[in-house]
Structure formats: structure tokens, C-alpha cells
Amino acid sequence: QICNQHNAEAPSLEHALHRMAQTEPNLDHDISWLLLPSYWAKIVVALISFLCFANSYDGDFVFDDSEAIINNKDLRAETPLGDLWHHDFWGSKLSSNTSHKSYRPLTVLTFRINYLFAGGFYPVGFHVINIILHCTISVLMVDVFSILLGGLQFTNKGRRLNLAPKTSLLAALLFAAHPVHTECVAGIVGRADLLCALFFLLSFLGYCKAFKENKEGHNFSIFWVLVSVILGAIAMLCKEQGITILGLNAVFDALVINKINLLELIQKLLHKDKSLENAGLLRKGLLFRITLLLSGGASILYIRWRIMGTGPPAFTEVDNPASFADSLFVRAINYNYYYSLNAWLLLCPWWLCFDWSMGCIPLIKSVSDWRLIALAALWFCLIGLICQALCSEDSHKRRILTLGLGFLIIPFLPASNLFFRVGFVIAERVIYLPSIGYCILFTYGFSLLSKQAKKKKILAVAVLGILLINVMRCALRSSQWRSEEQLFRSALSVCPLNAKVHYNVGKNLADKGNQSAAIKYYREAVRLNPKYVHAMNNLGNILKERNELQEAEELLSLAVQIQPDFAAAWMNLGIVQNSLRRFEEAEQSYWTAIKHRKKYPDCYYNLGRLYADLNRHIDALNAWRNATVLKPEHSLAWNNMIILLDNTGNLAQAEAVGREALELIPNDHSLMFSLANVLGKSQKYKESEALFLKAIKANPNAASYHGNLAVLYHRWGNLDLAKKHYEVSLKLDPMAPGTKENYNLLRRKLEQLQKKGG
Prior knowledge:
By secondary structure, the chain is mostly helical. The chain contains 34 helices and no strands. α33 (719-732) packs antiparallel against α34 (739-757).
């Protein structure tokens, strides 16, 4: 029942509403739980949600954050804002064949704002916004759950009544402290799910406001229905799941506003009963509102389809093995097994992993696989709940179970593989919205148990214990998301068969300089997935640096054989072949890499080194020039150009290149050093001295800087200063080539001068 706002007798009407509320079963009646005023309930929920994830505030950029944030040019001020509307979440053009078609421009816009306000890539600001978003969503959940569990009723003054304050608080606390949400909150790329959830909930609450002046289901506000559609569109521009709120609003309208009995409606439709209006389907306004929702949703999807293009996203078999299975039976069985694992993560969120692909969950290929028990358990529970939702004589029970199942299943549909292939096996972040349905079902189950239980306080303590365990689990999991090392290592015990986990642990170790340990994990990654070209490439790189060239060549050759367009592997293969003095093959590998990646400055740099080794000086200079055009801050390419021109006697050209390089990279001490050498040979001693001193200030422990400055002073005739810097150079590196000989020459000269002076 929804009150008539135009009734002048407000006080008596409000009492009447409370009496009507008592006629329906009240979930709160049998629950031994805290009864708090609405504002206190929201403060408690906000505090709990903050405590769960607060320790992630100073975490690093981890895992996908690198690609979505650090390497995403759409965050930089020099990228036009308009590009955000034509690029995917990772900064690639939507029209590109490599694009994942994840169209989330509003999420990227918030990253860009974060970047601009922080003045760079400082993760604290990004993490703080994520924590604030989760707290805000959790607070909104108090209102959402009060409507879903207690119904929608307003006073004559337009104030919404909370008819389930205890259960709505419990459900909101379960949501706020669910450990499966850690990836969304502690992982910065989870911002997409958080923003989507925020506008998803605002759309639902906006739709509820449409019935503020409702009388008998006839009056509603078109304005708020349209606002709800717009908020749903905004949710979708944050993440694809957002569009599902329009379907849920329609379900809510039918069940709560129009009180339709789904089983009765289905029976009437099957029997072509002409009394459908009595079932509520044709009740005034319902069809119109559903038409608005459907047309709004269709328009949004059409616009998105036009923007992102008609081509499906490109995923590989390792991303989602089941979707590449030839047998329909194998695909169906494995998809259902994935659903059961998602359900288990909601029920028991203890085994959490940043990535569930690459062999983490082996395919079910036979009916004798014991894991089919999980499918049976899932469908046994679902069918039982659906039967109760349809067939129960208790209308209150039917409504809550249907809404719970609706919020559990409908937001999950975009990730279900039913409509299109997705790029993951399991992703904890996509369970953020479906967990609303889980919290409804859990809370309703708790209320039913409380009704039957004699010792209600013991049951309440048990639920409180679950909440406490969840809070501690959230805090622990958040700490694991603070750094890549902790995150990757935490996955080893959860997904030991996941090649990507071993690869990431190895990469993290290699970045820290621990090559021996990194090799072990890279080898394990290749063993688990013999087609893992990125692991082969990185392992080949380390072996190349350790001068184990034969094995490095074998690995890199295999990588390009498996993936012929793998430009990085072609370049590294060229480096190995160059080291093996197979110059023609190396040149061919470099050009193949450039063919597959047109803008590849590092490859041009290595090609230049090859040409320099072959004394093809003009080709070398051209290759390095290409590298600096593609990447103006490529210090090594600039340096090599200066050194080559210097060594070939082209001092004027070397000086011009050096000055050009320093204009682009003014604080690069290696460029200062190279240009200072050229200026010294051109007898521009004063300018050369200034650059040497500036380079030494930037890098005081470089023996060669002191040694070459000493040579400059030696030529210049400043013998005391020459002696001083020779001695510093020898102290830093006693084996510095040429320095000891020059120092001995200087000492003999000084002794001769002393004798003459004597």
C-alpha cells in the first residue's frame, strides 16, 4: 500500500500506515538485532565499510592499474577530452582490432581528474576516492535494502517509511564488509564497478521516487522515470553492467508497485485468459513505464553499439578456455561450473585471487568429473528458491525471493557468456552488484531462522561473528592488494595451476633484480602453459642478459612461431642473434618487429646498434633518428648519435645533435657528459667544463665523468684541478681505462715543473 499524499489528515494516516505495515509479515519482528535510527544505521555502515578497506589507501598501482592508468594516455592533459569518447577503458581506439570494447569513458574521466589534481601518478588519491565511493554505496544500500525487504511506502508528507530497519541494517553491513569486494575497492581499476554501482543504486532510488504521490498504482512521475533511465545510462558509461538496472526497475515495478503474482500471470498467459487486467499486467501506467524503460534501454544500447562498432572484442583461449571449446556440452557444463564458483565466492569468500585464468580452473570434459556436484548443488538451490518465489502462498515471501534472485542474477548476465564471450573465467569485481541479491537472500534466511529459533540471541551472535570474520578478511585482503609482490604471492596457494600467477611473481622478482628466482617462476609458467609467449619472452630476456644465448634464442624463436605478430619477441630475438654475430638474421628480426609495430623506438635503437657494429654509420644514424622522432626522450639513441658523430670526427654535427637532445631532455647527465666531451675536443673549454660539472652534480659517483673532466683540465692547463679529478676518478674506479696512465703522465709533468721551479 502507498499512501495518498493529497489526504489532509496526515497524523491519522501515518498511524494507519503503520497498522497496514503490521498486516504484512514483518521481517524485523523475530530478529534479535540492533534497532537504530536511520542516520545512526548509516553512520555504522559507513564506519564498517571504511574499516574494512582503509588500509589500502597508501597501496601501489598493482596489476591492471599499470595498463588502465599509468600507460593510458587518455589521462594526460595533452590528450583531447573528446578522445575519451572514442577510446576503450585501456586507451585503445574502439575501432582497433585489439580493443576489448570495454567502453567506460566516465570512469576514465575520473582517473584523469585524479591525475590532474595529484599532479602525476600518485596512487593515494586514486585509492582514497575508491574507499569513499564504497562507503557512499554502502550507506545508500541501507535505503535500498529497506525498500527491497520492507516495501515502498510514503507518508502524506512524502517521507519514505523504513519498514525493515533491523534487516536493512544487517543486509547493508553484509554488503559493506563482503571480502569479495576487495578487488573493486583496493584495486584502482575497480573504480569502474564502484561508479557503476553508485549510479545503479541512484537509478533505482530515483525510480522509487516516481511513486511518491502514487495512489492505488495509478499516479507516478514521468520525470523520475526518465531520470532513472538517464542514471542507468550513466551507470553503463561507467561499466557495462549498469544497463541491467532498467530491467530490475521493471521487475520491481511489477512485483512491488503492482503486486503482480508471477505464477498466476504465467497461468493466465498460457490459458489466454482475458482477465489479465486483474492480474495487474495492464494496470494503468505499468505498460507505459515498462515501455519507457525498454525504449530507453534499447536507445542506450544502440548508441553504444554505434560508438564501439559492430566487431566483437578479441579474446584468446587462455582468457576464457570454455568459450573456445568445440563441444556445446563442454561449454555449457563449464559455464555452469563457473556460475557455481561465483556463488561459492559469495557464500565463502576465503579463497580469493587476482586472476582466475590460464589453467586456474581446468575444463570439465567428462560426466565423471566430481566437480559436477557443484553444478547440481547450484541448480538444486536455485530451483528451490525459484519454486518458492513463484509458488509460495505468502506474497511477502514471493516478493522478497524474486527480488533477491533478480538482483543476484540480472546484473550478472553481462558476465555470464550467454550473450557474448567475456575475457575472463571468473572476475571477483563483477560480483559487486550481484552481491546485493545475495545479501537479500541471506538476510531473509536469517529472519526465517530467527522466527523458528528458540534462542534468537545465539543466532544473532553467530551472524555478528560472520560479520566480524568478514571485516578481518577484508582488512587482510586489502593489505595483500597494497603491493604487487603480496598480491601475486597470495595467489600461489589459491591458483597454483595458473600460469599467469607464476608469470607475475617472476616479473615482480625480475623487476627487483632477483633474476635467479624469476627464472624459476618463468619456467613454471611456461611448463603450465607451453604457449605462454610473454613468459617465454621475459625468460629469454633474462637468459640473454646472463649470456645463455642458445636457450634464449630457442625460447624467443618458439614465441614468434606461436605468435608471429609478437613484436617484442622479434626484437629480443634480434638482440640475441646480434650477440651471436648472426647479423643478417638479426637485421631481419628487427625489421619484422617494426613491421608488426610501426612505432617501435626501442627496436629502431637496437637496429642502429647493429648497423654501428657493421660500420654502416649512415644507416645507424638514421635508425637512431627514427627512435628519437618516435620517442623524443630516448636518451640512449641521442647519446649513441653524439658518440658516433664524435668518433667519426663530425664534431660540429655531434655538437648540434647534443644541443638538440639537451633541449628535449635538459636534466639527462649522460647527454651532458657526451656533449661536454665534444665541446672539449672543439676547444670550447669553458662550456665543456660547465657541462661536466653539471653532470657530476647530478651523478657524483661516475668515475668516467671525473676522469674526462680531468682530461679537459689537463688539455686546458689547469693541472691542479686535473690532478684532483684524476684522483677522485681512481678512487671511484681504480681500474678505469686510461685514467691511471693519464694520471701518471700528469704527475711526471708536475714533477718536471717543480724541478724547473726549484
